[in-house]
Structures are given as C-alpha cells and as structure tokens.
Design brief:
The chain is mainly alpha-helical. Helix content is about 45%, strand content about 10%. Strand 1 and strand 2 form a beta hairpin. The longest helix has 28 residues.
C-alpha cells in the first residue's frame, strides 16, 4: 500500500489505495474489545457523515439541485434507501446555506440529528438555516429534542397568515392512501395525511380506545409479555373498530375489537390569558405547533375550558389530593405543564401521570401536582425497572434522572 506522511502528520494516499487503507483500519478496529469497537465505529461514522455532508454541500454550492445530489448518492451506493438519500441531500443543502453547521458537525459539537432537525424545520424557507439564533436554539439540545427545538423556533417566527396558509394547504392536500408494506410480506399500509390538528384528534381518539383495550386485556395487573396484544396492535384494532363499528371489545367474541363509543379522547390546546386577550401570540397544540387564530376560535366555541395558574418555574400553584391515583384535573394540569414525556418528549397521548416518589414507597410520595410528571410507557418502565427517580432543575426547568434512594423505591409488584 503506497502512502506517505507529510510534515503535518497527515496521511496522503495515492489514487486507488484509499479503500485498501480503510480496510486495514477496519481490521485493526475489529481486533479490539466489543465496547471499544462500538466507540471507534461511532467516531468513524461521525467523521464520515461530516465528510459526506461537506462533499454534498460543495456540490450544492456549485449549482447541483437536491435531486441531483440524491442521484449522486444513488450512483455511489444503490443499496441506500431513498429516504436516507433524501435526508443526506437535505443535510448537504442545509450546510451549503450555513457552512458553520458543517464545521460543528466535523468537530463533533453537534450531530447529524441536529443538522437534520434544522433542515426539516427550514424546508420551506431554506434561508432560515443561516440564522445564528436557530443554531443556538438547537445546538444545546439532545438529539431527541433537536427536532422539536428547531420547529418551535421556526413556528415562533410565523405570523397568523403564515400559519393559516399552512393549515389550509394541509387541508387541501389531505388524503388516505393504501399500499403494500415494503418491509413485511402480506402487510398492508393505510396512510392518512392531513392538517396537524385533525391528525392529532384522530390519533388521540385511537389512543383513548387503545387504553380501554389495554384495561380490557388486563392493564397493569398483567405482565407486559403476557398481554395478548402489543401497543401497535391495540391501535390498529381501535382504528378497525372505529371505522367498521366492529363491536364491543369487552365481549370475548370481540377480543380484538374496540367499541365505537365509550372512550373519550382529549386534544389539548393551550393559550395564555394575556396572549388570548391581546392577540400577541398563538395557541399551541400540545405535542404539535401553533394553531391559527381562526381555527382556534372554531374549536374554542365547543371546547371545555380549564384555567390553570403556573409559577415562574412551571409549578402549578395548588396542591392535589392524598389518594394514589391522580384526578382528571391533576392529569390535565400535568399535561398542560409538561406538554409530553419530560424525558423523551413523546406526545401526551402516549404518556402516564407518574409519581416522582411512588405513593407506596417508604417515603410515601403524595398525589400532589408537584410530585407528578408526564412520562411515556417506555420511560415509565425504565424509571421503575432501573430504580431511577426524576429531578427537575430549578433554574432551567429541565428534567433529568438520578438513582432513587431506598425509601423512594416502590416494592416489587407481584406477578399476575
């Protein structure tokens, strides 16, 4: 293998030797302990992603369209999915707009998820990718929260006309399509596309029906691996019953069905009182984005309105009750405060009201709003199985986990 090392200790390779050299590097990595292999591969992947993004950005600045970038990627590796090619091309185009993103990606200060979040949020206004404030809003977040942070920054810049145009455009393009799954033989897909609020309403209704199915199947009194249906299967059965009026899920003959009535869905739209009176800002769909004023007004006419007073750090300014289960009002208050899972940002429909200190732990955590937090099923299970508890930063309001003390751990549940 021909190579030379210059005075700056950089390796210079002759044409045709790069792949052989890289193969030698991979052989050296494979010889290491598995954990070290994982760390090295992650670092190599990060650097290669940065090199690829830089090359695509250079092509974009030279005049290549994003479609052309995708064609280049397909020619380089036909086995890459169309979705991954599209994402990589958007990443390169976004770095072409804001080269600082490429520098930060190369240095490891941000990841591809951060660049992709900015790319997705600015797809209709690419010039916004160059805004320093957008980078600042996304840079300090975790990869899981980057998309939400970028979307919120862009949403906050939109006026009501922009929001309504987006809503109206989504309504014009609403549709349902049916096609065969590309991953599972014999599996078919029914895909619904529409405006954010309508999709949220449909999904919340299915989640409400799915929760009733969960209780019918045994709920938390039954081990997760002993449930007859997964969460996804319950959602499908709820959809099937809603559309076909399949019957009562409580009947053994209809074990895979859910009733058309009974479970009530909730979609949360929040607004500050000052914003509502002044028109200075927009209502927010929890788990989504801002709602146009005219659309909010339509829903306000038939909505159930609840007033909740928060302190400066997001504390609800009243206490709850001393029983184990949170009231509906407390659950609503936690939903309005947290907006979704406090750990992974999953939407409220996938969340439970979690006792930070369990009510049956030796410390006897009260069912007060200050001892409640919204967490999704996966994070809820992780908190209990790994004996973790939640803690909120009093300055930033961010939630994180810590090891629970012995008096904060609930006794193990008996198998069903």
């Amino acid at each position: 293998m021909a190579s030379a090392v210059d005075s700056s200790n950089e390796i210079t390779l002759e044409t045709g030797t790069e792949i052989a050299w890289f193969g030698a590097v991979l052989d050296a990595v494979r010889a290491k302990a598995p954990r070290r292999v994982l760390a090295d591969v992650a670092e190599m992947r990060r650097r290669l992603d940065a090199v690829e993004a830089s090359a695509l950005a250079t092509r974009r600045r030279s005049g290549a369209t994003e479609r052309r970038l995708e064609e280049d990627l397909a020619a380089a590796d036909p086995k890459v999915t169309k979705r991954d090619r599209h994402r990589a091309a958007r990443r390169g185009a976004t770095i072409a707009t804001n080269p600082a993103l490429g520098d930060l990606l190369a240095s490891g200060e941000i990841g591809t998820a951060h660049v992709d979040a900015i790319a997705a949020a600015t797809v209709h206004e690419p010039a916004l990718a160059a805004e320093p404030d957008l980078l600042a809003a996304v840079r300090g977040t975790s990869p899981d929260r980057a998309g939400r942070a970028a979307k919120k920054w862009v949403d906050d810049r939109r006026d009501d006309d922009d929001l309504y145009d987006q809503h109206a455009n989504a309504r014009r393009h609403r549709k349902v399509t049916r096609f065969a799954s590309r991953t599972e033989p014999g599996l078919w897909v029914l895909q619904a596309e529409g405006d954010e609020l309508a999709i949220a309403q449909i999904y919340e209704q299915l989640m409400a029906d799915s929760r009733r199915l969960y209780e019918t199947d045994g709920g938390r009194d039954r081990r997760p691996d002993d449930h007859p249906r997964t969460r996804d299967q319950r959602l499908f059965d709820a959809l099937h019953a809603r559309v076909t009026d399949a019957g009562d899920a409580s009947s053994p003959a209809n074990a895979n069905r859910t009733p058309r009535s009974g479970a009530v869905a909730k979609v949360f739209i929040t607004h500050t009182l000052t914003g509502l009176l002044s028109g200075a800002d927009h209502a927010q769909l929890l788990g989504g984005g801002p709602v146009p004023r005219s659309v909010f007004a339509d829903h306000l006419a038939t909505a159930s309105i609840t007033g909740i007073i928060f302190g400066r750090r997001g504390d609800v300014l009243w206490k709850g009750r001393a029983t184990r289960l949170a009231t509906a009002a407390q659950t609503d208050a936690a939903t309005a405060r947290d907006g979704g899972c406090v750990l992974c940002t999953a939407p409220p429909s996938r969340c439970h009201t979690h006792h930070i200190i369990p009510s049956n732990a030796p410390a006897r955590g009260p069912t007060d709003i200050d001892n409640l937090a919204l967490v999704c099923s996966d994070c809820h299970h992780r908190l209990h199985s790994q004996h973790l508890t939640l803690q909120r930063d009093r300055v930033t309001g961010e939630w994180h986990t810590r090891a629970a003390r012995p008096d904060e751990i609930a006794p193990a549940r008996r198998p069903a």
